[in-house]
Design goal:
Layout lengths: L1 E5 L7 H16 L3 H13 L4 E7 L2 E9 L13 E7 L8 H15 L4 E6 L3 H4 L4 E8 L2 E9 L1 H6 L1
Antiparallel strand pairs: 1-2, 2-3, 3-4, 5-7, 6-7
Helix pairs in contact: 1-2
């Protein structure tokens, strides 16, 4: 059975999160495993940012971050952000990513936010979850889509 928890409640999942982040984004971010470890520690201390971990039983199978700022200079006026969505390759196509996205949406809405944003190169993945392309952003090595979802209405209906 799938459950989702803040990383601070399942510290044994931290090494999985570091491994996934290192494999997926280190080349783009220029991060080492120690840099990822420091980033997770920073997030745990931040009063707004959060890492959520999906567990299948006791096994970590995916993660998603909710960040106050994504770090894209052109879009610092937008907040909060869904970030760093990843599912372990052995657990893909089982609804884990959708569950993580929905969890972050609900968490942000319960915190009083009306909208949630994300960056992606593949916007079509999010269309089925009612996200829309809002803008584009220039990163040092590529252009990405800024997506937006209104989350207030869904939280009010729950």
């Amino acid at each position: 059975m799938l459950s989702i928890h803040p990383l601070s409640q399942v510290p044994t999942a931290r090494d999985y999160c570091i491994k996934w982040s290192d494999a997926e984004w280190s080349a783009l971010a220029g991060f080492s495993k120690d840099d990822w470890r420091q980033e997770f520690q920073r997030i745990e201390k931040d009063p707004v940012d959060e890492v959520f971990v999906a567990l299948e039983g006791d096994t970590p199978v995916g993660m998603a971050w909710m960040l106050e700022q994504e770090g894209v200079e052109s879009h610092t006026h937008l907040s909060p952000w869904l970030s760093s969505l990843i599912v372990d390759p052995l657990h893909r196509d089982k609804g884990v990513a959708s569950a993580l996205v929905q969890h972050v949406e609900t968490y942000a809405a319960l915190g009083g936010d009306d909208d949630l944003y994300l960056l992606t190169e593949t916007p079509s993945y999010y269309f089925s979850m009612d996200w829309e392309v809002f803008d584009t952003a220039e990163l040092p090595d590529r252009t990405v889509f800024v997506m937006k979802k209104s989350i207030r209405a869904s939280a009010d209906q729950d």
